[in-house]
Amino acid sequence: MGNSEYIYAVASIRAREKGLLTDADIQTLSGMKDSEAVMTYLTEHGWGEGVESKNPEEILAAETEKTNAILMNLKVNPEIVDVLSYQDRFQNLKTAVKEVCTGTEDWDAFYEDEKLPANVLVQAVRDGDFEKLPDYMREVAKFAKETLLSTRDGQRCDVIIDRACLDRIEAAANSSDAFLADYAETLVAVADIKIAVRACRTKSKLPLIQEALAPCKSFDVKELSLAAANSLDAVYDYLTRKGFAEAVEAIKESFSSFERWCDNEMIKKILPQKHKIDSSGPIVAYYLARKNEIQMVRIIVTAKDNHFPDEAISERLRRMYG
User: Fold this and answer.
1) pLDDT tens digit sequence for 203-215
2) What is the band of 269 on the pLDDT scale with cuts at 50, 70, 90?
3) Cα separation of 122 and 102, whole Å?
């Protein structure tokens, strides 16, 4: 897609942006008495159009499907679409490998993926016919399956697949599309920080940490691995020196606060795209903003259904793009 074509596509996105939830909307939803009130508010604002059911999950699934269709309808560069799909696709691979190796079956556990449907993925893993998978997924699928069958170590299986996903995303950091490159680098850096913190808290061994962390431009993952194998204070010190002091403060507050910092960091990264008119940035930013608000609604609905106190909900709320 050339610059002139992006200008037309961005004009379409600008109109859609007016319907995004704002921080004030999210605060309003979080203060409602129950999930029914939340969904009533959303349906009155256009959510779930065409969905007869009032079931929150069905409405959110419809909104997700609608959001995914935008990238296709606006004919966004396939490279960008692929990068945005990697996390869900590799998560589906983890689910498929575990289901095949344990003999369980739960189709609801899979994300929708038109290019690689769950039934095709599961059948390929079950039959060992890895040529049916995308080329970047074949070796890791085979290795993960063999590892889980021989060791029954689900954590190691997760590490293998998660690392392959991050490596794939990091490769996009060299893209000629400036926004895609910046987004991919930030995503991998944030994921590495999460992995290092979790590994430190679970006292994971250095080899497993080194296997899990994906190289990125933001810091030296060898040094981060050594810090994570040492102590949380060592991780704090290293991250602070590398410009991630805000992340450290969030970790110290609580893991929920840290997760919120991670998501807010991604929103912060896409906010400048509101002022672009001739690149993929505004389209991708809108897509990510929609995914973020759907996630926030899911968090609020779940919290209401489980009678979480208001302060527990507030701790989980993220910054909005709208």
Assistant:
1) 999 999 999 999 9
2) confident
3) 12
